[in-house]
Amino acid sequence: MSQRFSESLKELNHTPWQACTQHRFINEMFAGTLDDAVLRRYLVQDYQFINQFVALLGAAIASADQFAPRVTLSQFAAMITSDENTYFIRSFDALGVAESDRHLPQLSLPTVQFQALMLEAARSQKYANCLAVLCVAEGLYLDAFDRDGAALPPRFEHAEWIHLHANDFFRGFVAWLRAELDRVGEGLDPQARAEAADFFARAVALEQSFFDHVYPA
Ligand SMILES: Cc1ncc(CO)c(N)n1
After folding, report:
1. Which entry of 72, 85, 113, 217 is 20 to 30 Å from 167 by CA?
2. Best of 53, 111, 115, 208 for a ligand 1 pocket test (most atoms within 8 Å of beta carbon)
3. Which residues line ligand 1 (CB under 6 A)?
4. Which atom of ligand 1 sits closest to the CA of residue 210?
5. Closest C-alpha to ligand 1, atom 10
6. pLDDT tens sequence for the chain (217 residues)
């Protein structure tokens, strides 16, 4: 009972969580050896993920129970829609991504499924469900990209993506998200906890298929 809710969810999903944090995509990005075609597919699909992700942040802001979490979530939304958004645009330019693929690409199955999961969490209007999905998306990326003592690769498309998910602001936000899921989880009845746990598990599985699917079969 004393275990943190956020920690217990991570442990329950340990196998797919670890498959993501040790994924070849992350390793190749750190090594600077990632195939441009793989990165292009990833970024084109991820920009569509981010679109719905910002909407999920909006739903978390709307369903939060206090002003303080609204402020923290809004500040994170500000980062995503400024520094992270311009990273995508500059990377699309560097990788020669066509205008149509930036704004209206053909969506892959994992992208469609992830968008649907985020929309479902948003529409539930339950803060805990929104937090569960946010905790996966950001917590998993922190665990994947925040590697002790690892040098940044030379190209900005690789280095900046790593840095966006391994800096003090991001570390602080993920620590806050985990504590917030613990706090909100405390007040839930068993059914609502199970519902949030289910969102968490589905999000982890989708993170894995998202990394997998940018590689040719
Ligand atoms: C699919 C996916 N999950 C998480 C993140 C982190 O925001 C991202 N950019 N894309």
Report:
1. 113
2. 53
3. 46, 49, 137-138, 141, 207, 210
4. 1
5. 46
6. 578 999 999 999 999 999 999 999 999 999 999 999 999 999 999 999 999 999 999 999 999 999 999 999 999 999 999 999 999 999 999 999 999 999 999 999 999 999 999 999 999 999 999 999 999 999 999 999 999 999 999 999 999 999 999 999 999 999 999 999 999 999 999 999 999 999 999 999 999 999 999 999 8
ipTM: 0.98
pTM score, whole prediction: 0.98
Long-range Cβ pairs for the range 19-23 (8 Å, 24+): 19/208, 20/140, 20/144, 20/204, 20/207, 20/208, 20/211, 21/140, 21/143, 21/144, 23/144, 23/208, 23/211, 23/212
